[in-house]
Design brief:
It contains 19 helices and four strands. The protein has helices at 2-41, 45-62, 78-87, 93-116, 118-124, 127-149, 153-169, 172-176, 178-192, 199-203, 219-225, 228-247, 252-274, 283-292, 297-312, 314-321, 325-349, 356-379, 395-410, and strands at 71-73, 279-281, 385-386, 392-393. The strands form two sheets. A two-stranded antiparallel ribbon has the order 1-2. A two-stranded antiparallel ribbon has the order 3-4. A hairpin with a 5-residue loop joins strand 3 and strand 4. The longest helix is centred in the N-terminal third of the chain and has 40 residues, at 2-41.
Amino acid sequence: MKNKKYTKVETSLLANSKKAILAMQHLIAMFGATVLVPILTGFDPSVALFSAGLGTLIFHLCTKGKVPVFLGSSFAFIPLILTVKELYNGDLAYAQGGIVVAGLIYVVLSFLVKKIGVEKIQKVLSPQVVGPMIMVIGLNLIPTAFGMASENMAIAAVTLGIALLINFKSKGFIKQLSILIAVIAGYLVSMKLGIVNVDVVKDASLVALPAFRLPKFDIGAIAIIAPVVLAVFMEHLGDITTNGQVVGKNFIEDPGLNRTLLGDGLATMAAALIGGPANTTYGENTGVLALTKNYDPSILRLTAIFAIALGLVSKVGAVLTTIPTAVMGGISLMLFSMISLIGVKTIKNSKVEFNIRNIVVMGVILILGLGSGIIEKKFGVSIGIPINETVKITGLSFAAIVGIALNLILNRK
């Protein structure tokens, strides 16, 4: 009996150890982007990590713990935060107030979605619309990953090569750790080449309380930031759909789009109330799910706890900030490519008929989603729907709106 008991304890410890390692892998995948947003805007990175972890736990509570996502800092809010920062003499508390209201609008939208019903939403979100949307999400992120990798292509190539080798040649738990192993290998090579600044780790204190700050509310700041919700709604829809396609479940139906919106809104409000940027579901972590084939939501909750701890333990956070951009770029190239392939699989597995109507719908989404940014950069013409003087629905959001409308018209029967 004693041996049997010991075996059970040992098995439990092994299982928990595996969960902890997989959670660390998710933490590394989200870390770069989550910390980059506060670095670009002026928010405190430790608060951003803390609020990302807190927001993720809130999201899982709202979605009955069924959806394996991590919520990190949202890039969509960056230009608006910087605008408010400039108008209000660098006081980011006013930007927080705008973000709180944006989160509240998300909450209101969640109740509207519940009233309208999921069935009507699913009729609108047919595979010929959803598949290209997912492809646009991944393909639009690839240039960002390539830009990160270009800081040191050799390091990025080593990191990416090791991740691909493990992913294609290994099996079981080692295969699930392909990202973590590749990042460690890339980090060690970087250290050998002398491009890792360890002074940051030496100078960091062991434990430090993040610089929490309350928001300030002003109608001007709210008017600048709040309308962005109309643009990021489609991003949320795309991310939740992508996550469901990866896991093989329909999260729009169960636990319901209203619950995922509620979780996102409350998480964003909680982040802004303590001094953090807006939260959003992360494609990087969906990419990790696609690679590891481990969809246990409790692993993401453990990642959230680690993120909160990182916000408090400065030394550990400092170590992660020393990971070279090229290393994260190499890994991100694989993660974002995986998302794009999921879009292709969605079209294939749903057996979408390649008639002229569906080809037009898919083509328009891809052209608008991928081409609007190129047109703006090359010709200075911004394609989209203006909301106010500052905000315009462009890129994926604009492509999705046009694609959905076009599909309803062409496939109305």
